Amino acid sequence: MTQKPSNAFVAASWIALLLGISGFIVGLWNATGMQLNEKGYYFTVLMYGLFAAVSVQKCVRDRLEGIPVTDIYYGLSWFSILLTIVLLTVGLWNATLLPSEKGFYAFAFLLSVFGAITVQKNTRDAQAAKKPEQQRIPIEVDA
Questions:
Q1: Whole-number Cα distances in Å, 54 to 19, 29, 134, 135
Q2: Using CA atoms, how far apart are residues 86 and 94, in angstroms rounded to an integer?
Q3: Alpha-carbon distance 35 to 42, whole Å?
Q4: Among candidates 79, 86, 85, 83, which has minimal Cα distance to 113?
């Protein structure tokens, strides 16, 4: 049986997620030297990264619990999270931002991804803790 996550860990996970996302978005909103298409690029990378992180966490957890996950979806999930990191890195590398701004976006992105993974994990753990142990009862079939 899975243990329910502590309230402190659940709160810390939500805080990490919300601080990461809001910090990233507020940074984009206040970026005066960035064109709208650049802001859209970084916002899209953030949203795609959050989705990919949750997807990877779910795939890994499903496989550990014996729930079938297709190899193609598992591979696409890992490819997606790695792609978002590469896209963010390339974008920041070529951006005309101060190094401190580049670091800010990188760490806000990583905090958001970490928060998304832990919130997903906590949600899954809380649901698993609510369910009583499901025992498999063999069914006899008369032939």
A1: 17, 25, 26, 29
A2: 12
A3: 11
A4: 85
Task: Read off the tokens for 137.
Answer: 């009862």
- So where are the chain's domains? 8-127
Residue 133 DSSP code = P
> What is the token pair recorded at 134?
């499901």
Which tens digits make up the pLDDT trace of 39-70?
A: 999 999 999 999 999 999 999 989 988 889 99
Angle at 105 between CA 103 and CA 106, to 5 degrees: 60
CA dihedral 39, 43, 46, 50 (to 10 degrees): 180
Comparing CA positions, the residue from 88, 115, 82 lying closest to residue 104 is 88
Start-end of H helices in the chain: 7-30, 36-64, 71-94, 99-130
> Whole-prediction pTM value?
0.82
**Distance of CA 106 to CAs 73, 100, 129, Å?**
26, 10, 34
Give CA 33 to chain center in angstroms: 28
